[in-house]
Fold this sequence. Notes:
The chain is of the alpha/beta class. Helix content is 29%, strand content 21%.
Amino acid sequence: MQEVWDRKEYFRQRRFALFQGNSLNPNLFDKQFIDLIVTSPPYNVGIEYKSNNDKLFYDDYLQFSRAWISNCYSWSNPQARFLFNVPLDKNKGGNRSVGADLTRIAQDAGWKYHSTIVWNEGNISRRTAWGSWMSASAPFVIAPVELIVVLYKDAWKKVNGTKVSDITRDEFMEWTNGLWTFNGESKKKIGHPAPFPRELPRRCIKLFSYVNDLVFDPFCGSGTTLVEALANDRRTVGVELDEHYCEVAKKRITNEIKPYTFDSSLELKLKENKGEYVIDLPI
């Protein structure tokens, strides 16, 4: 397991903060502050990260998952939602029902199950393992999909927050169909070995949170969740273990969002809805 340490503030503006730290550390935060979690944790499939061991024994991986999922529960507000993107299953290092196992771990930590969205990434062309070729001896069946598991803390219905939703009619009708089809992201383009596309957190954020809610990613990576949270007038906090990826995330936020221009847009949107809300971070 990785060493844990206290968080280091890497990059902050009024509505967002990026910390270098380890989400396995239960003392990383000392209060409840999260409204929505959108994350894609390490899959434990041997990806070469700079600081994370992605080749754990499966029991160790499950223990790793228990730690960060339990911590997220402790740091979340009572009406928080929790969305994590994981494979349906994997066969590298043995066949494992990753999605089902992490869903059970989340429920054991206190999270309540709501639904599962199936993301059809359409990457079946990249497969290299077939098992017993054209034989019933031992074929491999691989589904070209990933899961976005949707859970919540105390109650599903949100009664707190700005109550300002910015989702369109067409977006709502399309995204409440639990089969999402869009392409993955380029590793080379983003500069990270396992990025997810902006479309994934964009849908999650607009469908499951209000304007000005606080969106959290405990495995910030290249900063995709933070970028989309800011682009859609949410506050956001991210944690990333590796300093190099913290810098990648910082550059993306600066280049893609222009953080100094956020506040006027958000304040105008809240004013139009006759609301006055704190837009500073609670941490």
